[in-house]
Amino acid sequence: MAPAEESHAGGDGGEAQGCLHAPGLIGCLLSGSTPSSWCSWLLSLYVFPAMTMQFISHRFPDYHDPTIEDAYKTQVRIDDEPAYLDILDTAGQAEFTAMRDQYMRGGEGFIICYSITDRQSFQEASEFKELIYRVRHTYNIPLVLVGNKIDLQEFRQVSRDEGMHLAQEYSCPFFETSAALHFYIDDVFHELVREIRRREKSLPQAEGKSKSKDSLWQKLKGSLKKKRESPS
Predict the structure, then answer these.
(1) Basic and acidic residues bias located where (predicted)?
(2) Are 58 and 52 in contact (CB under 8 A)?
(3) How far apart are CA 142 and CA 198, in angstroms?
């Protein structure tokens, strides 16, 4: 477990119009046995698309349409090893929610997000680990807990101590971030990749990466693309 004091105080100067306050989940799958063959995908589940936008392009969206799915690709270096990221923001589409169990089976790590300005989002975020356990039948899953919108202090409903306590229960790193100001957004994604790499090194080789997870990712993207292109 990365220590909870790894948490950071940042700020969140507002939010894009159309963004939701519900808790969010970002999953990550890494594949490839050598640094040169790292290939990963990240999936942003139905909220906090601004975090994905900031990580990819270092900009905060003025407006977010929660009915539109967006896909992004980028390459980064984390601890001198390359990571190729294919990120899909499903933007809260109900059809993806229906596929949540399949997604949780495919993801190798998850970022659990909540808004510090919305207690209900924190309460719902506290249930995500159990949802993952129900699907995966193990608590040994890389996680990072994130409290977003930290500079809206006048609207804070969830204390930093509460976030740290939940992270201790989850045995995972904790960050407070600002998607609007790009405070600690990169740190969150990088730490998740580190957590996944640490877990992979601890597993027997037979339990390593599976091509079926790449296949699942393609099916999820294909399903959402068809829905987006279909006439209303």
Answers:
(1) 201-216
(2) no
(3) 9
Mean pLDDT of 46-50: 49
CATH of the domain at 166: 3.40.50.300
Q: Is residue 108 part of a domain?
A: yes
The Cα–Cα gap between 51 and 180 comes to 8
| Segments forming the whole domain that contains residue 125 | 4-203
The domain total for the chain is 1
The per-residue pLDDT for range 60-92, each reduced to its tens digit, is 655 544 444 456 677 778 899 887 766 665 544
Q: Which residue has the tokens 């999820």?
A: 220
Report the C-alpha gap between 119 and 219 in whole angstroms: 34
The answer for 75, left when phi > 0, alpha when psi is -120 to 50, beta otherwise, is: beta
Q: How many CB atoms lie within 10 A of CB 160?
A: 17
Query: What confidence tens digit (pLDDT) does each residue in 186-196 have?
Result: 898 889 889 98
Is the separation of the CB atoms in 76 and 82 below 8 Å?
yes
